[in-house]
From TrEMBL, chain A:
Keywords: Amino-acid transport, ATP-binding, Nucleotide-binding, Transport
ABC transporter domain: residues covered: 5-232
Species of origin: Amaricoccus macauensis
Protein name: Branched-chain amino acid transport system ATP-binding protein
GO molecular function: ATP binding; ATP hydrolysis activity; branched-chain amino acid transmembrane transporter activity
A single GO BP: L-amino acid transport
Keyword ATP-binding found: yes
InterPro entries to which the protein is assigned, alphabetical: AAA+_ATPase, ABC_transporter-like_ATP-bd, ABC_transporter-like_CS, BCAA_Transport_ATP-bd_LivF, P-loop_NTPase
Transport is among the record's keywords: yes
UniProtKB/TrEMBL annotation, chain B:
Name of this protein: Branched-chain amino acid transport system permease protein
UniProt keyword Nucleus, yes or no: no
Membrane topology: Multi-pass membrane protein
Subcellular localization(s) per the UniProt record: Cell membrane
């Protein structure tokens, strides 16, 4: 399969403190990749460099054949990266519908996302269409954040802790949606629930102290590995 | 229909009623006051697009108000003095036709707002306030020192400019012209704020970085809002010049920029009719208190203080509660 996203030896800093020491990561078209690691190991930082919110100091990032290092944030997004940031921040005063339509961007690829399609994926959003995002439950806000990212017709959907802090029933809805999306577009997912990640991911990347330490299929993720790098 | 929509309709109907009743009962002075409120309200509606919806606190919109005014003044004085506006590279005559004057005002302000906005929007917060003020002051001092169009003394428009066969010197007719333009601009801003442009503008105000990571550059959205806002203010400026039949650099002064901000805050930031209500209060206070004391701005200041402290959504917020896009 064709490589969509490729990170090689990426290092990044927050001010003077180094957060990434050499991350290697690649995602193929249509592939679901899980980025795993304990808290503070650099998962979110990696995702931030992917969407250009944080500039890497060294290394190379390629997305869809473009070197994105030094590219403006909006340009990187336009290449087809749909980021669902940690904390599912929606535009609170705007309605569900407004959040979705504002994100809509025409796609040069077939099978574009529309509000109807997002509402078919998350029927709850259809019920809440004219409600303000601030009045939604946490799970509904997460669905809206995912829907908003999809409306930009991304080639890669980046989910940073999409199920964190949600009720088990709602988590299941989100996982079901991710399963539904699988195959349509590439997904880079960060999450803490190993069981679900094993089911949905094609490949896993383990990172430890800002470095990629292991890559492989979920089946190869032994208890020794999870114990050592994830602390479970 | 929401309470705010009802209030908006009531306010607009109120304006119309006051002007018509005042005209029928032979009080042209009141009609003129209502016209002044409508024109200042129109300028406020324009500023509100940048200030309220875009969160861009421009302290330089007097520049566009004055540019609108001078567009009217320069075109009319050239026509009235039978002098060409310019002779090189081609001869251009002045005009007293309102639609041409309005179009000139709007286009000129848009063209000037483009570079001002493009430079100012590279900054934010206090710096944005100061740089917009600086640009407006540059234009103000230019107008004072440029003798061709009256310099510090300003320009008189002997007869109000014309619109078709209408008698624009009739106070009610002129009120209705201004009122129709206010309705037009209100409708346009209403549509713009509900279109994707308006949503993106609201998002740029709430969280520019998140908007950027959706692939939209806040700068361009803000620049468009700034330019459109300047164009609406210039239209108001052209009308204001016709109302007073006089233009002077005072239209470009920073006090005007401040007054426009006051109108918007008084009525309700980011509320469609906030500036119109703000303008009505402003004009009424000026008229009632203005001939009791020279210090009429003192009670205005108190009203503004009360509104800012106790009614965060302005007078509209006080009457209808917090809103949607606030």
């Amino acid at each position: 399969m064709k490589t969509l996203l490729d990170l090689k030896g990426v290092t990044a800093f927050y001010g003077a403190s180094q957060a990434l020491f050499g991350v290697d990561l690649d995602v193929a078209e249509g592939e679901v990749v899980a980025l795993m690691g304990r808290n503070g190991m650099g998962k979110t930082t990696t995702v931030r460099t992917v969407s250009a919110l944080l500039r890497p100091r060294e290394g190379a990032i390629t997305f869809a054949g473009h070197a994105t290092r030094g590219m403006a944030i909006h340009r990187v997004a336009r290449l087809g990266i749909g980021l669902v940031p940690e904390g599912r921040r929606c535009f609170a005063p705007l309605s569900v519908e407004e959040n979705l339509t504002a994100a809509a961007r025409a796609s040069d690829r077939p099978g574009g996302w529309t509000q109807t399609r997002v509402e078919a994926l998350f029927p709850r959003l259809a019920e809440r269409r004219s409600q303000r995002a601030s009045t939604l439950s946490g799970g509904e806000q997460q669905m809206l954040a995912i829907g908003r990212a999809l409306m930009t017709n991304p080639r890669l959907l980046v989910l940073d802790e999409a199920t964190e802090g949600l009720a088990p029933v709602v988590r299941q809805e989100i996982w079901a949606a991710i399963h539904q999306l699988k195959g349509d577009l590439a997904i880079l997912v960060i999450d803490k629930t190993l069981k679900e990640l094993r089911q949905v991911a094609d490949r896993c990347f383990l990172i430890e102290r800002g470095r990629t330490v292991w890559t492989g299929e979920p089946a190869a993720l032994t208890p020794e590995l999870t114990d050592r790098y994830l602390g479970v | 229909m929401t309470r705010e929509s009802l209030l908006n309709i009531a306010v607009l109907a109120g304006f119309l009623a006051v002007a018509i009743i005042a005209s029928l009962s032979g009080q042209p002075y009141l009609v003129t006051l209502a016209t002044k409120a409508v024109i200042l309200g129109l300028a406020g509606v324009g500023l509100n697009l940048a200030l309220g919806y875009g969160g861009l606190v421009s302290f330089g919109h007097a520049a566009f108000f004055g540019i609108g005014g001078y567009a009217a003044g320069i075109l009319a004085s050239a026509a009235q003095n039978y002098e060409p506006l310019m002779t090189w590279p081609m001869e251009l005559a002045g005009t007293t036709s309102m639609p041409i004057i309005w179009a000139t005002a709007v286009i000129a302000a848009g063209l000037i707002a483009l570079p001002i906005g493009a430079l100012s929007l590279r900054t934010g917060g206090v710096h944005f306030i100061m740089i917009t003020l600086a640009f407006a002051q540059m234009i103000y001092y230019f107008a004072i020192s440029w003798p061709a169009y009256g310099g510090e003394d300003g320009l008189s428009i002997y007869v109000r400019n014309s619109l078709g066969a209408l008698d624009t010197m009739d106070p009610l007719t002129f009120f209705l012209i201004a009122f129709a333009l206010l309705l037009l601009v209100l409708a346009l801003t209403f549509m713009a704020t509900r279109a994707r442009f308006g949503l993106a503008l609201a998002m740029a105000r709430q969280n520019p970085l998140r908007l950027t990571s959706m692939g939209v550059r806040p700068f361009r959205v803000r620049l468009a809002a700034f330019v459109l806002s300047a164009m609406a203010v210039a239209l108001a400026g052209a009308l204001y010049a016709d109302l007073n039949r006089f233009v002077s650099p005072s239209m470009l002064s920073w006090q005007i920029s401040g007054e426009l901000i006051v109108l918007v805050i008084l009525g309700g930031v980011g509320r469609p009719l906030g500036p119109v209500i703000g303008a009505a209060i402003f004009v009424l206070l000026e008229a009632w208190l203005g001939h009791l004391t020279d210090y009429w701005q003192l009670p205005l200041g108190l009203v503004l203080l009360l509104v800012v402290l106790f009614a965060r959504g302005g007078v509209i917020g006080l009457l209808t509660g917090r809103n949607a896009n606030a």
